Every structure is written in C-alpha cells, then in structure tokens.
Fold this sequence. Notes:
Layout: H1 8-17, E1 19-20, H2 25-41, E2 47-52, E3 55-61, H3 67-83, H4 87-96, H5 101-104, E4 118-123, E5 127-135, H6 139-158
Parallel strand pairs: 1-4
Antiparallel strand pairs: 2-3, 2-5, 4-5
Helix pairs in contact: 2-6
Family: Belongs to the UPF0303 family.
InterPro entries: PduO/GlcC-like, PduO/GlcC-like_sf, YBR137W-like
Protein name: UPF0303 protein HEB29_002029
Amino acid sequence: xxxxxxxxxxxxxxxxxxxLPHFGYDDAYALGTLLVRLARARHAPVAIDIxxxxxxxxxxxxxxxxxxxxxxxxxxxRVVERYAESSYLVGTRFRAKGTTFEESSRLDPDVYAAHGGxxxxxxxxxxxxxxxxxxxxxxxxxxxLVVEALEQFATELTG
Length: 159
C-alpha cells in the first residue's frame, strides 16, 4: 500500500481537521495502543512514540523495528516541535518550492528530518501540545498510518 503523496493544502486540511478536545496520559495510551493494533494488523515493522511537551507518554517497538527507527523518530519529532506542523508537511513545503529541507532549512540533518511520520497533537484552545510519531515504513505510509489512527481516535473522543 503506497498512498499518493498529498499536496501542501491537503496536509494543512488534515492538520486542521485533527484538533482534539483534550489530550492527557490516558489519551496517549489509547492512541498508542490503537497505533499498535493498526500496525500489527499490517505486520508493519514500526516504532511508535507519543509525547506531550518534553515528556514521552507512550513508546512501542514492534517486531522488525530497530534502534534506527528511534533515531528517525527523534529527528522527525524535532521538526514538529520546531514548526508546529507535521514533518511531512514541512518537507512537502520545501519540495513544492523546488528544493529540499536538507538543502534549504539550514538545520542539521542529523538532528532534524522533514520526512513523513511525525504529526502534531493539537488541542482546542491550546494549540500544539505534543507529537505522535511512527517510523519504519516509507514516509508516506508512516504519515498515513498516523493520520488514520488520529482520525479514528478523534472520532472516538467526539462520539
């Protein structure tokens, strides 16, 4: 399954539609276990990370994932923390301008990676308060897995 690369406007619309009413410890566990279930159903060799601020609230490493996935998680998450947008949106913005994040951001690529898979956790009235990140699949698939889980999770929260 290789999703079509979304446009900048489609990625912005995704982020706007996925603002949550709240997000706490129990929510992180629920979202994390949902991601684990979705990944296991696909036999996806991913690592999953959920943070609120600087605190890691959830982490899972599924069969086939490696420590390298944790390093990618950190690099993608830092992009979300810096830009308050998904790592895929940030990378797509640079590509839409005919360049790459690595060439034009002036940020160390060993510290930041604008590749799909890290998504901001935004809460109504508070803005971006954290991130949810998946690493282990091609970037479009990492991003799509996170979005699918957030869509299901948001639907469960809002009934």
